[in-house]
Amino acid sequence: PSLLLLLSSSLISDGVGAGWTIYPPLSSLIGQNGPSMDLAIFSLHLAGASSLAASVNFLVTMFQARSPDMTLERMPLFPWSIAITTLLLVLALPVLAGAITMLLTDRNFNTSFFAPDGGGDMML
After folding, report:
1. Sign of CA dihedral 19, 25, 31, 37
2. Within 10 A of 92 (CB to CB), how many other CB atoms are there?
3. Which of 17, 69, 113, 119 has a beta carbon 3.0–4.6 Å from 102's, enabling a disulfide?
4. What Cα–Cα distance (Å) separates residue 46 from each residue in 31, 74, 95?
């Protein structure tokens, strides 16, 4: 679903004019005033939510579905690397989702989290 939203955002209106970095000031509607940028930002939000769900799935499966003889000390390095990666994702993705949510509310509901003319902080 996230890829479909991202691809459909390039077909709506003028398309996403932010490039592959999505770097221009996105909190105001001056640069991108069409719904295409909102769809692209929402697709990033959806991709983050699915990554968070997959990370929790990996962690729960790894710690609950092991055989009784497989202790944590006897587990190979690959599952440990997956566990550490998913733990980092579980810690980082909610913060990024909060920032993307604030960006979407800045664009659609006239809040000023990132707009300095409304008292917001661009580096928040």
Report:
1. positive
2. 14
3. 113
4. 23, 36, 14
Rounded CA-CA distance 32/22 in Å is 11
CB atoms within 10 A of CB 9: 21
Q: How far apart are CA 30 and CA 58, in angstroms?
A: 41
pTM for the structure as a whole: 0.80
Q: For the chain, how big is the Rg over CA atoms in Å?
A: 19
Amino acid at 68: P
Instruction: Give me the residue spans of the domains in the chain.
Output: 2-118
pLDDT per residue as tens, the chain (124 positions): 888 988 888 888 777 777 666 766 666 666 677 788 888 889 999 999 999 999 999 999 999 998 989 999 999 999 999 999 999 999 999 999 999 999 889 888 988 888 788 888 877 6
The pair of three-digit structure tokens given for residue 16, joined into one six-digit string = 């996403």
